[in-house]
Amino acid sequence: MNELSASAPVDVVPGVSPSWAELPADRYIDREMSWLAFNQRVLELAEDPNLPVLERANFLAIFASNLDEFFMVRVAGLKRRIVTGLALPTNVGRAPHDVLADISVKAHELQARHAAAYQDLVGPALVEAGIHVVTWDSLDEADKTILYRHYSQHIYPILMPLAVDPAHPFPYISGLSLNLSIRVQNTKTGKEEFARLKVPQMMSRLIRVDAREDLDYVRYIALEDLIANHLDGLFPGMKVLDHHVFRVTRNEDVEIEEDETENLIQALEKELLRRRFGPPIRLEISEDMDETTRMLLLREFDITEQEVYVLPSPIDLRALFVLAKIDRPELHYPNHVPTTNVWLKPSNPNERADIFKAVSRREVLTHHPYESFTTSVQAFLEQAAADPHVLAIKQTLYRTSGDSPIVAALIKAAESGKQVLALVEIKARFDEEANISWARKLEKAGVHVVYGIVGLKTHCKLVHVIREEKGVLKHYSHMGTGNYNPKTSRIYEDLGLFTSSETVGKDLTKLFNVLSGYAIEKKYKRLLVAPLHLRNGLLARIETEAANARAGLPSGIKIKVNSIVDEVIIDALYRASSDGVPIDVWVRGICGIKAGQPGYSENIRIRSILGRYLEHSRIFAFHNSGDPDVLIGSADMMHRNLDRRVEALVKLTDPEHVEQVLDMFTLCFSDKTAGWTLEPDSTWTRTHLDASGHPLEDMQDRQMTLAMSRRRTGAR
């Protein structure tokens, strides 16, 4: 088996191994409740009247989408543990039933608050801006005529009502589909029947009432409302008595039992087929649903009252993504135009930049989306594909798209005779089918496609280009914190390092050999690689800071991650805090670490920044006796990242890059910057206004300003 095996033991650095007796048993914040607190922060943005109204609508839609995935994955996982009899990890100290009960209480609270945010806050604000989501009953005859014509031509032909009776068993209801439950009566016999109608998922949930309306005054109607008011035509000879909207969420997590001898793609395709028929875990119903229909659905889906969410219409506020795309600039965030990184700009504006020439002079740190992905990462790969001196390109791909210019560049390189290796992680959750599709497209073009190591996901973000220059092979590399996806690069905040360092090039040569073959490699010079030694590398650095603090020397730790729940890392930070190390943790999502707790976390501050961009970069910075040790990469502080994934961090060596990254923490933790602070009682407090009621500085706006103002310094 490859040395980077999921079963590889996790070592603990001597001197920092856990001593459970020293720390209280309740020192961790519950993972699921922390995630719900994160989504509550998203909801708070939607509730903020100081934000542009279409951005608030977008945050409502993001909240809904996030919660769907939470149920499909996290709640589904807990229910699986109950069915299989598995307990939660010992550090949680609670039974799955108790965790699910707590989740249910909080989720019901948040879904009710989410619905109220739309009904009472965002909806009225949209109306003030001239954007109306109307009901059929509010329309006049002229509007109804227009909509009936649209319904007849574009909707009615594709509807498929399904009867439920002894000859027609209750139909399969796909996860996240919107449905109408319909009670009809036979006009001859008087017998009542039940039918189900699926709202077409390929159509927009919100339909323009009259496309001739100017966007300054525009009306939409929910697709299900339009359909519901034309049911008579679907049931000729029957009387429609009643109808209600419902939606079911299913277990859609994928579990692959990998076998050394089984084809991974075939195993995944079989599991994806099973995903469609996962058991129901949540039922959302309209608040006007009658008890007979409600009990029928509970019985057919075999779920409990605890799993039922009664909501006002419209159900599934992901529909608001439609409104968020309305072209009303004054109702959106001010436009941010990414700039080209100052070191990648051509000396002549009329020429294309030479990425190889720029990177051969110095390492380049890019910060997306403030700096352009197109003129950096994409340009790098396109230039490598076209350059006759490039002999080989190796790249990891976790999430991208089949029409991506990144995929196109790899295909072009392979077709021109270059050696091209693409390590495709087809197990990236909810992107599995797309990844299989474009992986096969790459294979047909002659790209060497591999799927990583049995038992591990390959999550690191790497590009390695080998170029011949004057008879010598030279390495050009990119290591990032985000996926090679041009679409998400416009909304995800990420860092990326371009380097021609021979040290990094040799490290990546070794790592790619591990990923694509049977090489065994444990030693890297500028990289920390999981699962073998990333955890231990960070623990050693934490212990160094703790030792310095105990010796009365300056110390400090700064960490930026999406999530932090790994107990060994958290306990090491607690002990460092107890020794006097000041620790700043900047976390977007799940946070299992507590702040301000007497005896073990007095010196820990925790902040969260949410806004127009999704904070996605991972940074680990250590004071290191005045010589800052700063690493960036792909790894969050979670069990899966440290134990079951191939992750990589790279050390920054340019003092300007180190300063730039540390300045990000200074800005994040400034009392003049808007954000959330984790309180000692483990609640999050949002601070976005100063004492006089004026908005505090938006960090992401500030980062855009900084990117635009950067100047070349030092030798070129």
UniProtKB/TrEMBL annotation:
An intermediate of this reaction is the autophosphorylated ppk in which a phosphate is covalently linked to a histidine residue through a N-P bond. GO terms for cellular component: polyphosphate kinase complex. Keywords: ATP-binding, Kinase, Magnesium, Metal-binding, Nucleotide-binding, Phosphoprotein, Transferase. Residues 143-321 form the Polyphosphate kinase middle domain. The active site is at H459. ATP binds at N66, Y492, R588, H616. Mg(2+) binds at R399, R429. Residues 354-519, 527-689 form the Polyphosphate kinase C-terminal domain. Its cofactor is Mg(2+). Residues 28-134 form the Polyphosphate kinase N-terminal domain. GO terms for molecular function: ATP binding; metal ion binding; polyphosphate kinase activity. Belongs to the polyphosphate kinase 1 (PPK1) family. Catalyzes the reversible transfer of the terminal phosphate of ATP to form a long-chain polyphosphate (polyP). This is Polyphosphate kinase. The gene is ppk.
